[in-house]
Automatic annotation (TrEMBL), chain A:
Entry protein name: Cytochrome c-type biogenesis protein CcmF
Domain Cytochrome c assembly protein, first and last residues per copy: 89-295
Membrane topology, as annotated: Multi-pass membrane protein
Record keywords, A-Z: Cell inner membrane, Cell membrane, Cytochrome c-type biogenesis, Membrane, Transmembrane, Transmembrane helix
Transmembrane segments: 6-26, 38-62, 96-117, 124-142, 175-195, 207-229, 249-266, 273-292, 312-331, 352-374, 394-413, 425-443, 449-472, 493-516, 619-638
Major place of residence: membrane
Compartments (UniProt record): Cell inner membrane
Known role: Required for the biogenesis of c-type cytochromes. Possible subunit of a heme lyase.
UniProt key word Cell inner membrane: yes
GO biological process assignments: cytochrome complex assembly
Gene Ontology CC terms, in alphabetical order: plasma membrane
Organismal lineage: Bacteria, Pseudomonadati, Pseudomonadota, Alphaproteobacteria, Hyphomicrobiales
Automatic annotation (TrEMBL), chain B:
Pfam families xrefs: TPR_CcmH_CycH
Lineage of origin: Bacteria, Pseudomonadati, Pseudomonadota, Alphaproteobacteria, Hyphomicrobiales
Database matches in NCBIfam families: cytochro_ccmI
Positions in coiled-coil regions: 366-393
Keyword terms: Coiled coil, Cytochrome c-type biogenesis, Membrane, Repeat, TPR repeat, Transmembrane, Transmembrane helix
Biased composition (Basic and acidic residues): 78-89
Positions of the Cytochrome c-type biogenesis protein H TPR domain: 141-266
Organism: Cohaesibacter marisflavi
GO (cellular component) term, any one: cell envelope
Subcellular location: Cell envelope
Region (Disordered): 78-97, 287-313
Name of protein: Cytochrome c-type biogenesis protein CcmH
Gene Ontology annotations of biological process type: cytochrome complex assembly
C-alpha cells in the first residue's frame, strides 16, 4: 500500500502543480491577494507529497519489493543498504523523480521563506515554478513512471549497474541536480519579472543568493563527478569533454556569468536585462543537459528516433520553456527600465568582460556538444569532437579571462583606474613572473608552455588575495588594526577571494598534472619491477577475494622511493557475478595531499602476467580541491548578512492587524 | 484502507489549497513600498561599511547618492500610486470590481475542488495498481510455505541453505528441483554438497553424473564417467551407472564393449523397465555401426538427455504439482521437527496446525494441537491462542 500511496501522492502533486501554475498568476493580474496567497501553501504541500512519494520508492528499494518494476530492474536483495538507497536515483525513472523532488524543495523554500518578497513577484515566481513542476511531473508519470508494478513479482532483482555501485552515486547526482534545478529559481524570478513588467529591488537581491546556491552545488557536483570518473574508470583521466560532462559544464559556465552579472545588478542596478537573459539561458542549458542525458539521444540518434516517447516529450518541454522564455524576453524586456551607467574601465566593465568571455566559452562548448549530434541526425556520419576542438576554442578564450580575474575586484564601481589597480597587483605579478622563471630554470621536459600556465595560475591565486590585502591595509597599517579590519570584512569579499583562489588552484592542478604526469603501461608478472618518476613499483603477487556479489583479483604492489617504502597498493580487477561485468578498482596513493600515484589493473595475460597502468600525477588533487575552495567561497558569500531584506513597515489598518495577529 | 487514505488525502489537499481563498481580502502593499525598504537597508549598510573602514568617505558618498536617488524614485512612484488609488476608490466602479473579485474567488474554489479529485483520482485509476499489495522480499520468503509461490519456495529454501550450507536434507530436496527447472549449475552444486555431507552413495554419485551429462548436452565426459564408475564399484547391479557407462563406451567408440554392456543391462533388468527400449535401440545402432566398420562417434551418439529420467527432464521444465507438494511437505516437517525439539511461539504452532490441515492431515493436526498445549503450558495467552485457532479450524482438542 505504501507504494500505491506514493504513486497517488505524486499524482496529487501534479494536480497541485497545475493549480499553482494558473491561479497565482491570475491573482497577480487581477490584483487579488487571496488568489495569490494560495501559491505558498500549495508549493509546500507539493514538497510534502513528492517527498513522501520519493520516500515510498526508497522504502520499496530498501525492502527489495520486486513487485515494483523499477526496483526489480535496478537492485538486488543482497546489495549493501547504502546502495539500496542510492539505487533509487541510479536509474532513469528514479533520477527524474529526484529531479522533481529537488525542484519542489526549491519552490517550497521560496514559498516558506519568501515572506519579504513583494506578493506579485512571489506569486508569479511560484507560478512559473508550477509550470516546470507540472511539466516534469507529467513526464515522470506518463513516460518514466517509477511506480509501475509487476503483478507476478520476480524473486530477485537484476542488480544495479556495477559502475554505479560506489559511494560516488550517493553524492554526485543529488549535488548535480541541486545545481541544475537551483537555476530554475533564477529562471522563474526572471519570467516573473517579465510577466509583471517591472524589476523590483528585491528581485535583484533574491536572485543572487539562489544563483550562488545553485552554482556552489553544481561546482561540487561536477568536481565530484570528475573525481569519480577518475578513480572508477581506471585510466587516469578526469575530464573527457564527453557530452554528458559538457551537459553539466555549460550551465556552470553561464551560471558563473550569471553570478557575476547579478552582482552588478544588485550593487548598481545595471545589467538588469542582461541578467534576466542569462537566467533564462542558464536554466535552458540545464534543461538541455537533462534532455541530452535523459532522452537517450547521446547513445544513438537512431535509438532515439525509434523509441522517441521520452525524448520527444523532453524536446517539447525544451522548446516550450526555452522558446517561451526567450519569446517573452523579446516581447517584454524592452519595457524594463535600464539603470546605472558606467565607463568601460570599472568594476562593472570588468564583469561585462567576464560575461563576454564566459558566454563565448559556453557557446564553444555548446557547438562542440551539439554539432556531432546534428551531423549524425542529418548525414548519419558519427564523429567525435574531443579534446583538440575544445583545447583550440575553449582554451584561448579562458586565457584573457583568467588574466583579468584579479584585476576586476580592484577596480572601483562606475569609474575605475586600471593603472592603480595594476599597481596594487605588483606582488601577484612578481610572484607569477618569479614562479614562471623558476619553472623554466628547474624543470626539464614537459610542455614549453606549461611554466607560463603555472605563472598564470599563481597570478590568479595571489591576485585573488589582493583585494583582501588592500581592504585590510596589510603591510600598511599595524598588524592588529589589519586583523580587526579582516574580521569586519563583508563575507562577500572572502567569498570572491576564495572563489578566485580556488579557480587558480584548479588551473594549477590541471596544468601541472597534464604537463608533468608520467605513465607506464606494461605487462607485469609477480616479482617484476618498474620505475616512474623515481618511484619503484614491484608486483608481489595476486590473490582472489570473493564478496557476495563480486569476485576481485587483487594485485599487491610495493611502492618504494630510494629504497624507502612509500606505500603498499592493492588495485583489483573486479567481476560482478550477477551481470558478469568486469570493472577496475584503482589504487591511489596521495603524497603530501597533492600528488597521486595511480595504479589500475588491465586484463590478465598469458604466463601469469597482467596488464598494469601506472600513473604519476603531480598536484592532481588541486583540480578538485580548487573546486571545494570555490564552493566554500560560495558559502561565504551566501552567509553574508546583507542579503537579508526587511519587509516594508505597514501603515494604518494593516499595521494594527499585524499587531493583533 | 488505501481508498480511505487516498480520499482523506484528497480532501485535506482541497481544504489547504482553498483555505487562503476563504480568508478576508488583504490590502496589498505597493511593490514600491517593498523597494523602499530595501533601499533604506542599503543606506544603513553603507553607514556600517564606513564605520568599519571598509570604504572611504568618497566612495560612500557616491553610493549614498545613488541609493538615495533610487529611494526618491520609489517614493515618488508610491505617492503617485496612492493618489490614483484614492481617485479610483471614490468612484463607484470599485464596488463592481470588488464583486468581480468575489465571483473570481468562487470560480477558483470550485475549480480547485473539481480539478484536484478529478485529475488525481482519474490519472491514478489509469496508471496505478491499487489492489496490488506490497511484496517486500523478506515477508515473501517468511510466509508459510503453503502460501508461497513456486519461485518464493525455491528462494526461501535457497536462503536457508545459504545460511546453513551443511543442511543435507535441504540440498537433497533442492537438487532434483534444480535439475527439473533446468538450473543445471545449481543442481551440480547441490549434488556436490550432498556428496560432501553424506559421503559417496550410488544414488548421489550417479545423480551428479547425470546432471553433468545434461550440462554437456548428452556427452559423458571424463568426470561424469569417473563418477559412474565409482557408483558402479559400490553397487555393480545399480542400473543408472551401468546405463551411462554403456553410453560412454558407445560415445568413445568402444563399440563391442558398449554392445556387451547394453546386453548385460537388458538381461539384468526386470521386464518393463523404462530404459529397455532405449537400450535396444542403442544395441541395434551400435551393431550397425560395427558392421559398417565405422568407429567415428557422433553420428550415432545417443540423443542428449537420454536415460531413465528422460520423460521427467523433457516434460517437467517446470515443477509439477507433486514436486510442489513435496517441497511444502519438506518444509512443514522441518517446522514440526524444530517445534518438537526446541519449542516455539504460539503463532508458530498455529502455523504448523494450519499447514497440516492444508496438507489434508487432520490427525496430525490434532496431535500437533495436543503437543502445542503441552509445550505452551506456562504461556496462558499462547494456550488461548492455540485453542481458539484449533476451534476455528475445526480441530478437536482432547484434554
Amino acid at each position: 500500500m505504501i507504494i500505491e500511496l506514493g504513486h497517488f501522492m505524486l499524482v496529487l502533486a501534479l494536480a497541485l502543480a497545475l493549480i499553482q501554475s494558473v491561479v497565482p498568476i491570475w491573482g497577480a493580474q487581477t490584483n487579488d491577494s487571496r488568489l495569490m496567497a494560495i501559491a505558498s501553501p500549495i508549493a509546500i504541500m507539493q514538497f510534502l507529497f513528492v517527498g513522501l512519494a520519493f520516500a515510498a520508492l526508497t522504502h520499496a528499494y530498501v525492502t527489495s519489493d520486486f513487485s515494483v518494476q523499477n526496483v526489480w530492474e535496478n537492485s538486488h536483495s543482497t546489495m549493501p543498504l547504502l546502495y539500496k538507497f542510492t539505487s533509487v536515483w541510479g536509474n532513469h525513472e528514479g533520477s527524474m523523480l529526484l529531479w522533481v523532488f529537488i525542484l519542489v524543495i526549491f519552490s517550497a523554500l521560496v514559498g516558506a521563506f519568501g515572506l519579504n518578497l513583494p506578493p506579485k513577484l512571489k506569486a508569479n515566481t511560484l507560478a512559473v515554478q508550477g509550470w516546470i513542476t507540472a511539466a516534469f511531473l507529467l513526464f515522470v508519470l506518463l513516460t518514466s513512471n517509477p511506480f509501475h508494478r509487476i503483478a507476478n513479482a520476480p524473486i530477485e532483482g537484476r542488480d544495479l549497474n556495477p559502475i554505479l555501485q560506489d559511494i560516488g552515486l550517493a553524492i554526485h547526482p543529488p549535488l548535480l541536480y541541486l545545481g541544475y534545478v537551483g537555476f530554475s529559481i533564477a529562471f522563474s524570478f526572471s519570467i516573473a519579472a517579465l510577466l509583471e513588467g517591472r524589476i523590483d529591488a528585491a528581485w535583484a537581491r533574491w536572485v543572487r543568493p539562489w544563483v550562488l546556491v545553485a552554482w556552489g552545488l553544481l561546482t561540487l557536483g561536477i568536481a565530484m563527478g570528475s573525481y569519480w570518473a577518475y578513480y572508477e574508470l581506471g585510466w587516469g583521466g578526469y575530464w573527457f569533454w564527453d557530452p554528458v560532462e559538457n551537459a553539466s559544464f555549460m550551465p556552470w559556465l553561464s551560471g558563473t556569468a550569471l553570478l557575476h552579472s547579478a552582482i552588478v545588478m544588485e550593487k548598481r542596478g545595471a545589467l538588469k536585462v542582461w541578467t534576466i537573459l542569462l537566467s533564462i539561458l542558464t536554466f535552458s542549458l540545464s534543461l538541455l543537459g537533462t534532455f541530452l542525458v535523459r532522452s537517450g539521444v547521446l547513445t544513438s540518434v537512431h535509438a532515439f528516433a525509434t523509441d522517441p516517447s521520452r525524448g520527444v516529450f523532453i524536446l517539447i518541454l525544451l522548446v516550450a520553456f526555452i522558446g517561451g522564455g526567450l519569446s517573452l524576453f523579446a516581447w517584454r524586456a524592452p519595457m524594463l527600465k535600464q539603470g546605472g551607467v558606467f565607463s568601460p574601465i570599472s568594476r562593472e566593465g570588468s564583469l561585462v568582460l567576464n560575461n563576454l568571455f564566459l558566454s563565448a566559452a559556453t557557446a564553444a562548448v555548446l557547438v562542440g556538444t551539439l554539432y556531432p549530434l546534428a551531423l549524425e541526425a542529418t548525414t548519419g556520419a558519427k564523429i567525435s569532437v574531443g579534446a583538440p576542438f575544445f583545447n583550440a576554442t575553449f582554451g584561448p578564450m579562458m586565457v584573457p579571462l583568467l588574466i583579468a580575474v584579479p584585476v576586476g575586484p580592484l577596480l572601483a564601481w562606475k569609474r575605475g583606474d586600471l593603472f592603480a589597480a595594476m599597481q596594487r597587483l605588483f606582488i601577484a605579478l612578481g610572484a607569477a613572473i618569479f614562479v614562471t622563471v623558476l619553472c623554466y630554470a628547474l624543470i626539464n621536459g614537459g610542455s614549453a608552455l606549461a611554466p607560463l600556465g603555472i605563472g598564470l595560475a599563481v597570478w590568479v591565486m595571489v591576485g585573488a588575495l589582493a583585494e583582501m590585502q588592500l581592504r585590510i591595509g596589510l603591510f600598511k597599517l599595524p598588524l592588529g588594526k589589519s586583523f580587526s579590519r579582516l574580521i569586519g570584512l563583508p563575507r562577500t569579499v572572502f567569498g570572491a577571494a576564495l572563489g578566485h583562489f580556488g579557480l587558480g588552484m584548479t588551473l594549477l592542478g590541471l596544468i601541472v598534472a597534464s604537463a608533468y604526469q608520467t605513465e607506464d603501461i606494461l605487462v607485469m608478472k609477480p616479482g617484476d619491477q618498474t620505475s616512474i618518476s623515481g618511484y619503484t613499483f614491484q608486483l608481489d603477487g595476486f590473490r582472489e577475494h570473493a564478496e557476495f556479489n563480486y569476485v576481485d583479483l587483487i594485485g599487491s604492489f610495493q611502492v618504494t622511493k630510494d629504497g624507502q617504502q612509500v606505500a603498499e597498493l592493492h588495485p583489483a580487477k573486479r567481476v560482478y557475478t550477477s551481470r558478469n561485468m568486469p570493472t577496475t578498482e584503482t589504487a591511489i596513493h596521495t603524497i603530501g595531499g597533492v600528488t597521486q600515484l595511480y595504479l589500475s589493473l588491465g586484463d590478465a595475460q598469458e604466463n601469469n602476467g597482467i596488464g598494469v597502468r601506472i600513473y604519476y600525477k603531480p598536484w592532481v588533487t588541486f583540480i578538485w580541491l580548487g573546486c571545494v575552495v570555490m564552493f566554500i567561497g560560495g558559502c561565504f558569500s551566501i552567509s553574508d548578512r546583507r542579503l537579508r531584506i526587511g519587509a516594508p513597515a505597514r501603515k494604518g489598518r494593516a499595521k494594527q492587524a499585524a499587531g493583533t495577529a | 484502507m488505501f481508498w480511505t487514505i487516498a480520499v482523506v488525502l484528497t480532501l485535506v489537499t482541497i481544504a489547504i489549497a482553498t483555505y487562503p481563498l476563504m480568508r478576508k481580502e488583504r490590502k496589498l502593499d505597493s511593490a514600491n513600498a517593498y523597494d523602499m525598504t530595501i533601499y533604506k537597508s542599503q543606506l544603513q549598510e553603507i553607514e556600517g561599511d564606513v564605520e568599519r573602514g571598509l570604504i572611504d568617505e568618497a566612495e560612500a558618498e557616491a553610493a549614498r547618492a545613488e541609493v538615495a536617488r533610487r529611494l526618491i524614485g520609489a517614493q515618488d512612484a508610491l505617492e503617485k500610486e496612492s493618489e490614483t488609488d484614492r481617485k479610483t476608490s471614490d468612484a463607484p466602479a470599485s464596488v463592481s470590481q470588488f464583486e468581480g473579485g468575489k465571483s473570481n474567488l468562487r470560480f477558483a474554489v470550485v475549480a480547485i475542488a473539481l480539478v484536484i479529485p478529478l485529475l488525481s483520482l482519474g490519472l491514478y485509476f489509469t496508471l496505478g495498481s491499487p489492489d496490488l499489495p506490497a511484496q517486500p522480499l523478506q515477508a515473501r520468503l517468511s510466509k508459510p510455505p503453503e502460501n508461497q509461490s513456486l519461485t518464493e519456495l525455491v528462494a526461501s529454501a535457497e536462503m536457508k541453505l545459504a545460511a546453513n550450507p551443511d543442511d543435507l536434507e535441504g540440498w537433497k530436496r533442492m537438487a532434483p528441483v534444480y535439475a527439473r527447472m533446468r538450473r543445471t549449475d545449481d543442481a551440480i552444486k547441490a549434488y556436490r554438497n550432498i556428496l560432501r555431507l553424506e559421503g559417496e552413495s550410488v544414488e548421489a554419485l550417479s545423480d551428479l553424473g547425470e546432471v553433468l551429462v545434461i550440462k554437456n548436452a548428452g556427452v559423458v565426459n571424463d568426470e561424469a564417467r569417473e563418477l559412474f564408475q565409482r557408483a558402479n564399484l559400490l553397487d555393480a547391479t545399480a542400473p543408472k551407472p551401468r546405463f551411462f557407462l554403456a553410453i560412454a563406451l558407445g560415445q568413445s567408440g568402444e563399440t563391442q564393449d558398449a554392445i556387451e554392456k547394453w546386453q548385460a543391462l537388458v538381461a539384468d533388468s526386470a521386464e518393463g523397465a523404462p530404459w529397455i527400449p532405449f537400450a535396444k535401440e542403442q544395441i541395434a545402432a551400435l551393431k550397425k555401426r560395427d558392421a559398417s566398420g565405422s568407429t567415428t562417434e557422433g553420428e550415432q551418439a545417443p540423443p542428449p538427455l537420454a536415460g531413465p529420467s528422460k520423460e521427467d527432464v523433457d516434460n517437467a521444465a517446470e515443477l509439477t504439482a507433486e514436486d510442489r507438494q513435496q517441497m511444502i511437505e519438506g518444509m512443514v516437517s522441518n517446522l514440526a521437527d524444530r517445534l518438537n525439539s526446541e519449542g516455539g511461539t504460539a503463532d508458530e504452532w498455529v502455523r504448523l496446525i494450519r499447514a497440516e490441515l492444508v496438507l489434508n492431515r487432520p490427525d496430525m493436526a490434532a496431535k500437533t494441537v495436543t503437543r502445542a498445549l503441552d509445550a505452551l503450558q506456562s504461556d496462558v495467552d499462547g494456550l488461548e491462542k492455540v485453542k481458539a485457532a484449533a476451534r476455528s479450524l475445526g480441530v478437536s482438542i482432547d484434554q
